[in-house]
Amino acid sequence: MSAQIHTLKTGDLSKNKPAKKKVELIDALIHNVFNRLNVQLLQRVSDMLNTADSSLSTLAENAESEEMKCKYLNLVHIIRSERGNIDKAFFIAINNKIKRDEQSQDDELALVDEDEMEEMVAITTMYSNAMNNYGQEVDNLEARFEYLEMSSNKKLSKNSIDPRHICEAFQTALKQIDITLDYKLLLFRLFDMEVSSRLGDMYRSLNQLFIDAGIMPEIVYTAKNLDSAESTDKNSKSDKEFQVREARYYDPQKNKSSNFIPRSQDEISYFISQFMNGFTSAKGEGIPESFSTVPSDKDNHNCYSRNDLMNALSKLQNKLTKVKTRANVEKLDAEHIKRAIMADMGSSNGGAITRKVHLLDQRSIDFVGMMFTAITNDESISKIIKNLLMLLQIPVIKAAMLDEKLFTQENHPARSTLDLVSKAGKGVTEEEDHVFIKLEQIVNSILREYDVDIASFERAVDELQELIAIEEEVAAENERVEQFEIIKSHARDVVLTEMRHVTTNKKVPKSVQPLVLKHWPTMMCNRYVNHGKESSEWLLSLMLLKLLMKCLQPINNKSQWQLLNDNHEPLIEAVNDELYETQQDREEIDAQITALKQTFMKMLDDYGYKLVEEPETEAPEQTSTAVPYVEEENIDAANEELAENEHDAEIARIEEQARIAREKISKLPSDLHPGAWFQIFNGDDKPVRRLKLSIVLTEVAKLIFVDCHGVKVIEKDAGDFARELENEQSKFIADHSTFEHALGTVIHKLAA
Question: Of 126, 531, 636, 720, which has the highest C-beta tally within 10 A?
Answer without folding.
Answer: 126
